[in-house]
């Protein structure tokens, strides 16, 4: 924030003192959110395939990391806006990072450092994927070549299918995370009352692999009622909706991550009140957000 400072010439100051008319300087305006990044958002800006930030990417070999299988980091190239929030994203069962690669540029161009990861094995279960997401965040903030661009206090996780189940596991294990976004999540554990991380669950109405009735909906109901949380069900969507560019999913995911990782209340209006969107068959929330 820039503060306008006004100065009086020596002569003017003396005159004001003599006349007894020197008034107190006006109070400075309230401090702006130091984590806001980018211009004011609009419907079109968060629906666009690319946001306002130029970005680059770096591959991370599995041979250079511990606890997960490597991946790709996407990051804003500007250094003029300070550090950015970081997000690790896990693919689903039998998949690799290529299945979620579109999310890297989409989110990085909106002002995040994004790490799409490979898992140690394509068959890793949700609990393991949760541990790997956290290991990826630790690498991103402590050892990666872009660690100086990441604010280690503003981190989130996301994932598809068993990676979505792993997202819940990571949120359960590390309460200091700022946001979690499980996508078509699958997990045998249906109770998450211990989670303290703002969580946005997105399911597909016609998911036959992780049906919303058996997975996403019970996950949402089990989260604490006092938690900032939301549930979005995409109209007519199947299990693999996160594997190709999806404007509705991206729009509200961006809004959630901005709202809670960046504490950017400019995005609150896209989440509260509940969106009126033809692509959404159901939406639940705990608005207004704290």
From TrEMBL:
UniProt-recorded Gene Ontology molecular function terms: carboxylic ester hydrolase activity
Pfam families named in the record: PETase
Region (Disordered): 25-51
Residue span(s) of domain PET hydrolase/cutinase-like: 30-288
Signal peptide start-end: 1-30
Family annotation (PROSITE patterns): TAT
Organism: Amycolatopsis cihanbeyliensis
Record-linked PANTHER family: DIENELACTONE HYDROLASE DOMAIN-CONTAINING PROTEIN-RELATED, POLYKETIDE TRANSFERASE AF380
Domain of life: Bacteria
Family membership: Belongs to the AB hydrolase superfamily.
Protein name per UniProt: Alpha/beta hydrolase family protein
């Amino acid at each position: 924030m820039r503060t306008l400072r006004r100065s009086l010439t020596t002569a003017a100051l003396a005159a004001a003192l003599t006349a007894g008319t020197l008034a107190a300087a006006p109070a400075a305006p309230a401090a702006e959110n130091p984590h806001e990044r980018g211009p004011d958002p609009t419907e079109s800006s968060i629906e666009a395939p690319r946001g306002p930030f130029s970005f680059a990417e770096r591959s991370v070999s599995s041979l250079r990391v511990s606890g997960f299988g490597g991946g790709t980091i996407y990051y804003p190239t500007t250094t003029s806006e300070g550090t950015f929030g970081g997000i690790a994203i896990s693919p689903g069962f039998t998949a690799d990072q290529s299945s979620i690669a579109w999310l890297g540029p989409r989110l990085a161009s909106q002002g995040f450092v994004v790490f799409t990861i490979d898992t140690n094995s394509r068959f890793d279960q949700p609990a393991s994927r949760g541990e790997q997401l956290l290991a990826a965040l630790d690498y991103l903030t402590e050892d990666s070549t872009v660690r100086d661009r990441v604010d280690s206090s503003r981190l989130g996780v996301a994932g598809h299918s068993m990676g979505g189940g792993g997202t819940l596991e990571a949120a359960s294990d590390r309460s200091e995370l700022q946001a979690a976004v499980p996508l078509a999540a699958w997990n045998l554990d249906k109770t998450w009352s211990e989670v303290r991380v703002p969580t946005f669950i997105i399911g597909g109405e016609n998911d036959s692999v992780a049906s919303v009735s058996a997975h996403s909906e019970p996950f949402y109901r089990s989260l604490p009622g006092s938690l900032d949380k939301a549930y979005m069900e995409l109209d007519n969507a199947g299990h693999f909706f996160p594997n190709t560019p999806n404007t509705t999913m991206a729009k509200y995911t961006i809004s959630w991550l901005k709202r809670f990782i960046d504490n950017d209340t400019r995005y609150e209006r896209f989440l509260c009140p509940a969106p009126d969107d033809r692509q959404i068959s159901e939406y639940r929330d705990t608005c207004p957000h704290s």
